[in-house]
């Protein structure tokens, strides 16, 4: 299983479409980590890919949850935008504690628009950055999460 991990696309649908045309045949699932849930709905409607998504701080009046725990290929994936965990202020402790509490194997978040990938206390922690509005000197970026034979292979991909 190979998942495309996106966050903070902020209605830049032209970039979303271009990326999905570039790599859509190589992925089995799209995970969208908020800002904007309408973009996740657009992907669901226009591409033949399953989509998991959570709401972000810019997603008002939505029925989409702000966190989600899903088992994929035998691995628990915890997804959140991150804004409710003060992730933008440089402290990931609350987010990590939540992932530990849920016994997650993978913790995915967005909000900062800055890519991040590390294994912390046995949990793969990833922020895919943003393909639309990168910040902090980062380039446009997305994540790939591959789960194969019980192993997790995460990566960040800079994109034009």
Structural notes for this entry:
- The chain has helices at residues 13-23, 37-46, 93-101; strands at residues 2-6, 29-32, 51-53, 67-72, 75-80, 106-108, 116-120, 123-127, 141-148, 151-158.
- With 160 residues, the protein is of the alpha/beta class.
- The chain has one domain: Metallo-dependent phosphatases (Purple Acid Phosphatase, chain A, domain 2, 4-Layer Sandwich).
Short description:
This protein has three helices and ten strands.
Explain the layout of strands and helices.
Elements: E1 2-6, H1 13-23, E2 29-32, H2 37-46, E3 51-53, E4 67-72, E5 75-80, H3 93-101, E6 106-108, E7 116-120, E8 123-127, E9 141-148, E10 151-158
Parallel strand pairs: 1-2, 2-3, 5-6, 6-8
Antiparallel strand pairs: 1-9, 4-5, 7-8, 9-10
- Helix content estimate: 10-25%
CATH topology: Purple Acid Phosphatase, chain A, domain 2
- Our estimate of the beta-strand percent is 25-35%
Distance between the termini: 25 Å
The largest sheet, given as strand count, sense and whether it forms a barrel, is: 5 strands, mixed
Going across the major beta sheet, what is the strand order?
3-2-1-9-10
Number of strand elements:
10
CATH class: Alpha Beta
Keywords:
160 residues, alpha/beta, Purple Acid Phosphatase, chain A, domain 2, five-stranded mixed sheet, 3 helices, 10 strands
């Amino acid at each position: 299983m190979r998942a495309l991990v996106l966050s903070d696309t902020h209605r830049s649908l032209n970039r979303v479409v271009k990326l999905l045309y570039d790599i859509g045949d190589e992925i089995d699932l799209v995970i969208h980590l908020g800002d904007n849930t309408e973009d996740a709905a657009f992907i669901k409607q226009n591409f033949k890919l399953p989509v998991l998504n959570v709401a972000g701080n810019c997603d008002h009046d939505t029925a989409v949850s702000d966190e989600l725990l899903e088992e994929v290929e035998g691995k628990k994936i915890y997804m959140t935008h991150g804004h409710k965990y003060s992730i933008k202020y440089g402290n990931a402790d609350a987010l990590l504690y939540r992932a530990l509490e849920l016994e997650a194997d993978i913790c995915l978040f967005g909000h900062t628009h800055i890519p991040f990938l590390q294994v912390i206390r046995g949990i793969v922690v990833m922020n895919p950055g943003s393909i639309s509005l990168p910040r902090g000197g980062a380039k446009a970026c997305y994540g790939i999460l591959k789960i194969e034979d019980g192993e997790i292979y995460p990566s960040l991909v800079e994109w034009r």
